[in-house]
Amino acid sequence: xxxxxxxxxxxxxxxxxxxxxxxxxxxxxxxxxxxxxxxxxxxxxxxxxxxxxxxxxxxxxxxxxxxxxxxxxxxxxxxxxxxxxxxxxxxxxxxxxxxxxxxxxxxxxxxxxxxxxxxxxxxxxxxxxxxxxxxxxxxxxxxxxxxxxxxxxxxxxxxxxxxxxxxxxxxxxxxxxxxxxxxxxxxxxxxxxxxxxxxxxxxxxxxxxxxxxxxxxxxxxxxxxxxxxxxxxxxxxxxxxxxxxxxxxxxxxxxxxxxxxxxxxxxxxxxxxxxxxxxxxxxxxxxxxxxxxxxxxxxxxxxxxxxxxxxxxxxxxxxxxxxxxxxxxxxxxxxxxxxxxxxxxxxxxxx
Length: 351
What we know:
Distance between the termini: 10 Å
Strand content: 5-15%
Largest sheet: 8 strands, parallel
Radius of gyration: 20 Å
Number of strands: 8
Order of helices and strands: HEHHHHEHHEHEHEHEHEHHEHHHH
Strand order of the largest sheet: 1-2-3-4-5-6-7-8
Oligomer: single chain
Helix content: 40-55%
């Protein structure tokens, strides 16, 4: 299938995204607006360009925090909400579990309650305008240490906002072993919150194992180091443990792989692992969700039947009811089949 037809198909098909940092959907135009509000002058082109010049995970995280520091008042959040809505609409993402990283914003004087209320209002608008369901996973983050992670969980529990469904352990896994955060995740489990963690992104598979065994997470973000541990990869396959893989992100951080065609996503998928496809940080890595599916199809030599299954994996790995999963997957099948009925020249054997 050529690229034009593939994008037409994937734009038509409803999709889920489970590993998406909401703040990282912000556009260059919004960054310029925020910069001018904060500093009273236009952002120099070279300073904007410098935000995207990183070659490893710490460099990326530094740029991420720099952008967060451009937010100076609660109204600034409307920029990113607008960009977020545009992103999910352009990619026909109908269900999203997005990470929200509040620590830098709170250090700049923002109030957690006010931030989450604004997010809930934006979530309601997204449902009304785009028909999309958005849920929040609060990043307790390794970047700021255990005490801050405990504080973020305290705020989540106090807020008791139904749009917040869980917590996630983000940040640089090499500098924040999962075992340090076990008390936080145990409390979250007892409170009925879902639990996820970034792991296997830049650290070998023991990091993933610690997240599963010590934090009792329900999904792992990235998880690509499992591809280099055959017995563990087999365990993941047999248990159908979900992985939130973001290939382009991994190419930028360059720890395990530097070319899309060499990415272990296909290996994990062919081994039977429950992989989902995600962008991580679309603006930072200049990639959309449909782009990621095209990369999997055109550069990893996956077939259309594989692409459809991976789309369904996204819904089946989501924190929703079995009834909702079935409804979404039925809709994928319906739209997929309709697209091929309308495009009879496409090879049936690939569908």
